[in-house]
Amino acid sequence: NAGVTQTPKFQVLKTGQSMTLQCAQDMNHNSMYWYRQDPGMGLRLIYYSASEGTTDKGEVPNGYNVSRLNKREFSLRLESAAPSQTSVYFCASEVRPANTIYFGEGSWLTVV
Amino acid sequence: GNSVTQMEGPVTLSEEAFLTINCTYTATGYPSLFWYVQYPGEGLQLLLKATKADDKGSNKGFEATYRKETTSFHLEKGSVQVSDSAVYFCALSDRADSSYKLIFGSGTRLLVRP
User: Fold this and answer.
1) Bridge partners for A82 per DSSP
2) What pLDDT digit, counting tens, does each position of B33-53 carry?
3) Cys-Cys crosslink for B100: which of A23, B13, B33, B95, Cβ 3.0 to 4.6 Å?
4) Cβ of A90 and B43 within 8 Å?
């Protein structure tokens, strides 16, 4: 997991609150991703960014927004948190030409 | 659309037993296939990958062969250790625009007893 850093690692929110998950990579990768992991469902893609300045929706984008601030940073924002967004969130980035995705250590989010 | 199906867990084995975790996929084109491992409280780590039919990926004693005829990528290890206890995810790549996305199976928990 070296090179992909996520903050915070743990967070508890009340319904309706907002927060931003931060992600940074120091490997000069072009593509970055946000996934969520829920029990029995594997990882599902929320948003991705193929390059600086571009973002696209993944499988489960509703309730989230993202910003690719620069090549290093890709943030995920919850504008009005809901209990259904309780999950573990993983940021990842892609290295080429190996076409391998590397993951951060995860952010545990609980919405009460 | 593309999808990955894994055997449900948990899989419980004794140390030194033989491991197989089944993975099958549905995809158009020729995706790359991956196995990721997640140890408790950690993120996902790439375990091995294969990029074309009949390729065998291997790492740390684990192996998986890309079988296009059966659309499978089963994970095997000849002799498991307690330290192999983790959740294993099968995934395929889904190339789109200038990036590519991983589609994951639901994961299989492995518990190895001493």
Assistant:
1) none
2) 999 999 988 888 999 999 889
3) B95
4) yes
